[in-house]
Amino acid sequence: MWPLTLALLTLLVLALPLTPALLEWRRQRDIGPLPIDGEHTLDVGAVAAGFRALLTAQPVLPGQAARATPDLSLEPLVRVNGAFVPSPAESAVGLCARTIVGAEAVLLPDDYAFARDIYGRRSIRTGQRNRLQGLLSDGGIVMAAGSELRRWAHASHVHVGERCRLLGPVGALQSIRLEAGCRFASVSAPVVRFGRAGGADGTAASRYAGAPAGELSPAEARDGRWLVAQDFTFPANRLYRGDLVVHGNLRIGTGAHIAGSVKASGSIRLEAGARIGGALIAGAAISVEQGCAIGGPVAAEREIRLARFCVIGSPDRHTTVVAPVLLARVGATVHGAASALELGRVESDSDAATAKDHPCPP
């Protein structure tokens, strides 16, 4: 009898840790999809759509019942048409804690903080040194110099003035322009221009590169893939039709053209006028000099520097640039998205001159 009792007790002790798994297997409570908060993804379009749905649910006139549930209400809310006029209490503290909704345009005063989101159907023009949360417009958004966006913004086109800080994602249906001194986390649009002088159509890039002097056909290349097991310098003004993989640092000479993708375990430097047809991936840093053109995604594990007249992607081929640190010189252009996981900054000519003291290897 005692051996049987001991065996039963042993089985019971061993089975207890498996009880939750057995219950879950029988009840199947985890078959539904997990909810994902769109604001914690970089899909700023989804966040804007959620805010637009809340706007639709709000009463048009005071006294009307809101169709939104209380926990989704945008109240307290103020409707404006033109310049926003703060209340005496808001003027005293320099803070507006109301949602602002503009039937047409919204014009904000200088040196104010806004604790809730703002919508302007035709446009939003912020004041200088504003502190903002979320911005949504069916037309354009203009952020004046020195302002800070803490959450997100979405519009048809966005212009961000000098020395602004974009802590959250910014998306546009047409274009985004960031002036010198701006810091950003993630921007996405069919065309993203850093500063006023860009080469969005590729013509600025093409003037730095002539026709390749000759085509390379290395014996080491197999099936369109060239593998180099050490640091390598791709010769200037030469063409290679295939992918290049380098176990080490890579330098691509002036006017060189690689029709495929390029990957290096170390750093990559593109000299002026170099062209890459596909992706550009580095295990360390990437430095892209003037007039380069890259057709596919650009990613580095450490840092990316884009010089003037660089063009990433094209109007009919949107792509992505991503790195922990992304430094874009005034005049560079990205078609698609640019994301900096730690620091994104638009550099002026003076900033770039200072950076020469700490060049990107190799």
UniProtKB/TrEMBL annotation:
<keyword id="KW-0614">Plasmid</keyword>
<protein>
    <recommendedName>
        <fullName>Polymer-forming cytoskeletal protein</fullName>
    </recommendedName>
</protein>
<dbReference type="InterPro" id="IPR011004">
    <property type="entry name" value="Trimer_LpxA-like_sf"/>
</dbReference>
